[in-house]
C-alpha cells in the first residue's frame, strides 16, 4: 500500500485548475498524493488500480454527473467517497441524488477539508493491518482448503459457495482473503461461460481486496494470485466481447501456496 492516500480530481484538467483545487493540493501535499483524470477512457480501471482514497469532482464542468455517478454505480469503486464542489445550490442537490457523499461549495471545502478528508478518505487502517497480519499467520481453515481444491480443479462455482460460507462466518480482516479468492474464481467461471463483461467486472471487484492483503496469507501466495488475475484481466481488455472464445485459457492459473 502507498504511504500517502491518493485523491483523484476527476473531470479536472491538470493544467487549467481552479483556485480551490490549487489551494487543496498545496495545503495537503504532505498528507495526500493528487492525480487528475480528465479522460473518460478507463476511468473505473484507473480508480481501481491506483487504490484511490477520495474523488473530488468539479460541479462546474458539463459532465460532472458522469464523474460522480460512474464510480458509485460500479461495485469495484462504490466505496470510494465522492465530493462534488459547486457554488450553485441546485447542482449540490443534484449531486447528492447522483451518488455524491458530500456536496459543498468550494469555499466550504477549503475551510473544512482537513476534517472531511480525515472522516471520509478511504485509507488503510494500521490497527486493521496489524490484525490482518496476525490472521495471515494462522493455518488455512478447512473450508478454505476445500475451496482451494475446487478452485484448482476448475470447479469455480463450487469454490464460490465454500469461500462465501467462510467469508460470512469470519468477522476478522482475513475475510478479505476469502472474498478476493472467490471473486477471482467467479471471474474464471464467467470466462468458462463466455461472459466477457461478467468476468472483467468480477476481476475489477477483486482488486480492492487483493491490494490490501499481504503477499502471503494463511499459506496462500496472494502475490501470485494478484499477478495471475492481472494477466487474465489484461488479456480480457485486449479482446472484444464477441471474441471471448479466443481467450488464452493457459493464463488461468491455480491457487499457489508458500511453505512457512
How do the helices and strands line up, and which of them pair or pack?
Layout: E1 6-10, H1 19-27, E2 33-37, H2 43-49, E3 54-58, H3 64-72, E4 82-85, H4 89-97, E5 102-104, H5 106-120, H6 126-136, H7 142-152, H8 156-169, H9 175-192, H10 196-210, E6 216-217, E7 220-221, H11 222-238
Parallel strand pairs: 1-2, 1-3, 3-4, 4-5
Antiparallel strand pairs: 6-7
Helix pairs in contact: 7-8, 8-9, 9-10, 10-11
Structure write-up:
- With 260 residues, the chain is α/β, with parallel strands linked by helices.
- It has two domains: 6-123, Response regulator (Rossmann fold); 127-251, TTHA0068-like (Hyaluronidase domain-like), CATH 1.10.3450.
- Helices cover 52% and strands 10% of the residues.
- The protein is built from eleven helices and seven strands.
- Strands 2-1-3-4-5 form a five-stranded parallel beta sheet, sandwiched between helices.
- α8 (156-169) runs antiparallel to α9 (175-192).
- The longest helix has 18 residues, at 175-192.
- The protein starts with 5 loop residues before the first strand and ends in a 22-residue tail after the last helix.
